[in-house]
């Protein structure tokens, strides 16, 4: 397994946000985590990348424990975290925002990654000098994903990439994420949009108040009456 969470618990003060969850992601796989607000989805991603420390359990990436390591070191090991809400530098140009994603690269040879990002998101080619804050929501999401790809990750973690986007743009984002996975990139996708997440992922976990309630092949879960009622609106 490329990524393993083994009985991971996380506390916010006296509140236990994650309750001994176990999740695995194989290399080349796309795994989704679905659930409502407050379920623990973002907490899971923040724990993987070192922004939060687990109070119990272990996080293993490529055979090495990550828990206790600094976020910068975790990024260098090959994990990119595309955070919810896009969080661009609005007054910096599109190009400058993309280049920020390569800050951890020791070789600084990011030209190839930039070309790959622009091939993936051709809408950005004519906007490299434009301030990122003036882009549409969909274009900003392209920059956010592109910035994550600039570090040449082995694992891309996406937190609610469809949030606040029009349905057509959501479909485009889903298609792009699926294409990245087809190209060999391992993806861990967190989404409230369970219908979309289950459509494009290989396996899925459902979280409720910090616990895994159901897991399995995405296609099978999408047919489950329980999953349909709880996460897909009936």
Task: Describe the protein's architecture and organization.
With 234 residues, this protein is α/β, with parallel strands linked by helices. It is built from 9 helices and 10 strands. A hairpin with a 2-residue loop joins β9 and β10 (211-217). The longest helix is centred in the last third of the chain and has 16 residues, at 167-182. The model has no long low-confidence stretch (mean pLDDT 90).
Q: What ranges have pLDDT less than 50 throughout 5 or more consecutive residues?
A: none
Question: Helix content range of the residues, please?
Answer: 25-40%
The main sheet orders its strands as 6-7-8-3-9-10
Shape: globular
Radius of gyration: 17 Å
Query: SSE string, helix = H, strand = E?
Result: EEEHEEHEHHHEHEHEEHH
**Count of DSSP-assigned helices:** 9
Rounded to the nearest angstrom, the distance between the terminal CA atoms is 34 Å
Please state roughly what percent of the residues sit in beta strands, choosing from under 5%, 5-15%, 15-25%, 25-35%, 35-45% or over 45%. 25-35%
Instruction: Give a count of the beta strands, DSSP E runs of length 2 or more.
Output: 10
Structural class category: alpha/beta
- Please outline the major beta sheet: 6 strands, mixed
What would the average pLDDT be, to the nearest integer?
90
